[in-house]
């Protein structure tokens, strides 16, 4: 038992370190290095060093070992990318703004609750209506409509237990950084910024109880102090009931009470077994104060305003003249993509996929906007990835290396539900028990470069050189952990491995002690969390884990299509699609086996990945990592790239793959030379 606990403990320590990488890359590294000439020169200088050093490191051993390691469970570790891609119609998942507007079917039938507990999500009912937020002003009123997801989210509040006080803060489900308070003049209930960027000394929240489950009473109030960045009790507040004021038509605090009952909407967003297979219970650690994490407001970021435009070579500026979904930038991007295709084919090379694939991904990214007050510094309606453009540069020997460049904040467009994570990464301030834990998502700034050219696929794990990082212990998880078991999970970047269709980074399935990160209750029901850099990143596939809910893709995205939806790209340029569903067995490739890298090719689709599930016993046998839990692992990306990366220029930015800084292939004006 003690041994088990120590092991468990070490996981968290290490995961803190692992996610600590975000702190530099997400918050400091990129923002300071972005378009920084000195660092760009260092980066360019580092690339040949990395390639040269690969010939005298363990890459050959890696290939040998991987064959041995994987042969126990599979007879095929190779990939075969030979198909000429002919995809003409490519589907992408509905984003959250679309889902919010959709009618919930079957119709919800809320059930009355007879007790409440920490983290419950509730509807607060008066007469035949529910307490409701206005969608634009966030004013608190009541109405009875619960037909769309938006209706329900604006009426749902999550009860957050206030330690020993036996009362609950009520956070909005849609605007989860804001909580219920009241106007001290009118007494009306109101929503207040309690954990967002604009909270200040006026930020307060009420702490409620539900006596006999037929009244609602605010027993305490807490107010924020900017001097110590925490809440303390407002001792001038005296307990009051919630009453519906019929003359003003609003709920308010009063000495008398209305009959108020609490309901469960029936919308299930519980953490599925696959995201917490050990049934770890909720830790009680303090929430990290994001004020310690260099959080910034949107208007302070590089992608806000014209900085990216002015720093980009004039040949590409027409593609980024406006943020988000825009007809003229779309036309410019289509023109460039056509030129790239023509130029590649003229020299006997090719795009990995048809133009339709890249265009679909670009459109989906640019149409994704933040739907709630869920990101510290974020602004409702902002793009999660404001710019996507195509570059068409040649290296010094005249070889073309076109890229899809994506400017992204790496934020979800929907509620993150980080308060539901049972055992989030800690802040590294000591042992896990003494650490504060990460429950807030900040704005990141990333410029990803996804290669458009088909660089081919690896033959086996280890073919991709990723052995030397800045600290000398490997850019892959295995070497970083000092483990020589090289396989498709451990021969993975210690950092990002791809980007999802919502603009959020995808991390490997494994954490840095070679355990499936979904196994320790570290992620939300959708498979995401933040590290101590407070940047969101995917570790698992919520759709695969919990079925048809409100995930990055859902069953609704399968209807009427020939193949699961396009949900991301690996940094190697290989596309990522949703998992195959048994109810859609006539889809292209349904019967074509997924290889060890999680990919396959079929029916004119060049080699591509699929999210997928596997039994933990298979994972244990393959990797020998010693996990003993029996559960279904919901894999978004395994980790090892099947696409060959060795010939991709400026692939690494230190330990971070494709992390953009001011460079030629990112289209920076000081380095790019393309003229149409
Ligand atoms: Zn993580
Ligand atoms: Zn497929």
List the topology elements.
Blueprint: H1 2-33, H2 37-54, H3 59-71, H4 96-101, E1 111-112, E2 121-126, E3 129-133, E4 140-143, H5 149-153, E5 157-161, E6 168-172, E7 178-182, E8 189-193, E9 204-209, E10 217-225, E11 230-233, E12 240-245, E13 250-254, E14 260-264, H6 307-311, H7 314-317, H8 327-346, H9 355-366, E15 387-394, E16 400-408, E17 446-451, H10 477-480, E18 498-500, E19 505-506, E20 528-530, E21 536-538, H11 542-546, E22 566-570, E23 575-577, E24 599-602, E25 605-610, E26 612-615, H12 616-623, E27 632-635, E28 652-653, E29 656-657
Parallel strand pairs: 19-21, 23-25
Antiparallel strand pairs: 1-14, 2-3, 2-5, 2-14, 3-4, 5-6, 7-8, 9-10, 10-11, 10-12, 12-13, 15-16, 16-17, 18-19, 18-22, 20-21, 22-23, 24-25, 26-27, 28-29
The protein binds zinc ion (ZN) (2 copies).
């Amino acid at each position: 038992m003690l041994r088990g606990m120590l092991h468990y403990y070490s996981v968290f320590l290490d995961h803190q370190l692992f996610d600590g990488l975000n702190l530099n890359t997400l918050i400091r590294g990129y923002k300071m290095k972005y378009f920084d000439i000195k660092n760009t020169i260092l980066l360019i200088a580092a690339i040949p060093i990395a390639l040269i050093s690969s010939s005298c490191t363990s890459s050959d051993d890696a290939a040998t070992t991987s064959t041995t390691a994987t042969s126990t469970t599979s007879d095929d570790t190779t990939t075969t990318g030979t198909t000429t891609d002919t995809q003409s119609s490519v589907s992408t998942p509905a984003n959250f703004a679309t889902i919010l507007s959709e009618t919930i079917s079957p119709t919800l039938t809320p059930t009355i609750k007879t007790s409440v507990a920490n983290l419950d999500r509730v509807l607060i009912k008066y007469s035949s209506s529910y307490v409701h937020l206005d969608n634009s002003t966030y004013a608190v009123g009541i109405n009875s409509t619960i037909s769309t997801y938006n209706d329900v989210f604006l009426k749902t509040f999550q009860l957050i237990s206030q330690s020993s006080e036996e009362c609950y803060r009520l956070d909005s489900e849609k605007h989860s950084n804001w909580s219920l308070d009241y106007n001290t003049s009118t007494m009306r209930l109101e929503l207040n910024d309690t954990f967002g960027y604009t909270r200040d000394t006026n930020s307060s929240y009420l702490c409620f109880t539900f006596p006999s489950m037929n009244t609602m009473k605010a027993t305490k109030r807490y107010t924020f102090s900017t001097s110590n960045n925490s809440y303390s009790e407002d001792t001038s507040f005296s307990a009051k009931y919630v009453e519906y004021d019929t003359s003003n038509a609003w709920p308010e605090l009063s000495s008398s009470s209305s009959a108020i009952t609490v309901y469960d909407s029936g919308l299930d967003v519980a953490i599925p077994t696959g995201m917490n297979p050990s049934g770890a219970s909720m830790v009680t650690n303090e929430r990290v104060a994001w004020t310690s994490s260099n959080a910034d407001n949107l208007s302070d970021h590089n992608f806000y305003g014209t900085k990216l435009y002015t720093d980009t070579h004039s040949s590409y500026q027409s593609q980024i003249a406006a943020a988000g979904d825009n007809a003229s930038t779309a036309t410019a991007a289509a023109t460039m993509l056509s030129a790239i295709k023509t130029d590649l084919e003229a020299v006997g090379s090719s795009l990995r996929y048809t133009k339709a694939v890249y265009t679909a991904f670009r459109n989906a990214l640019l149409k994704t906007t933040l739907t709630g007050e869920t990101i510290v510094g974020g602004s409702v309606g902002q793009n999660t990835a404001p710019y996507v453009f195509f570059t068409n540069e040649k290296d010094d020997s005249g070889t073309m290396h076109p890229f899809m460049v994506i400017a992204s904040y790496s934020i979800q467009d929907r509620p993150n539900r980080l308060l539901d994570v049972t055992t989030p990464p800690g802040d590294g301030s000591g042992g896990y028990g003494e650490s504060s834990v990460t429950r807030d998502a900040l704005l990141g700034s990333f410029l990803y470069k996804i290669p458009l050219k088909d660089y081919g696929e690896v033959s086996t794990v280890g073919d991709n050189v990723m052995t030397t990082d800045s600290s000398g212990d490997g850019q892959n998880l295995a070497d970083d952990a000092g483990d020589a078991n090289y396989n498709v999970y451990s021969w993975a970047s210690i950092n990002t491995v791809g980007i999802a269709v919502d603009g959020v980074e995808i991390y490997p399935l494994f954490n840095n002690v070679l355990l499936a990160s979904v196994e320790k209750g570290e992620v939300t029901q959708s498979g995401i969390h933040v590290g101590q850099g407070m940047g969101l990143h995917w570790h698992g596939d919520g759709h695969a884990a919990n079925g048809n809910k409100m995930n990055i893709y859902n069953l609704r995205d399968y209807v009427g299509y020939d193949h699961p939806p396009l949900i991301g790209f690996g940094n190697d340029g290989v596309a990522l699609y949703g998992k195959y569903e048994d109810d859609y067995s006539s889809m292209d490739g349904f019967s074509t086996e997924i290889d060890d890298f999680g990919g396959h090719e079929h029916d004119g689709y060049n080699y591509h990945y699929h999210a997928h599930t596997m039994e933990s016993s298979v994972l244990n046998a393959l990797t020998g990592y010693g996990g003993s839990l029996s559960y279904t692992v919901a894999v978004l990306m395994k980790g090892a790239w099947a696409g060959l990366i060795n010939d991709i220029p400026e692939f690494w930015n230190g330990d971070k793959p494709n992390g953009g800084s001011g460079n030629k292939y990112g289209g920076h004006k000081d380095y790019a030379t393309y003229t149409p």
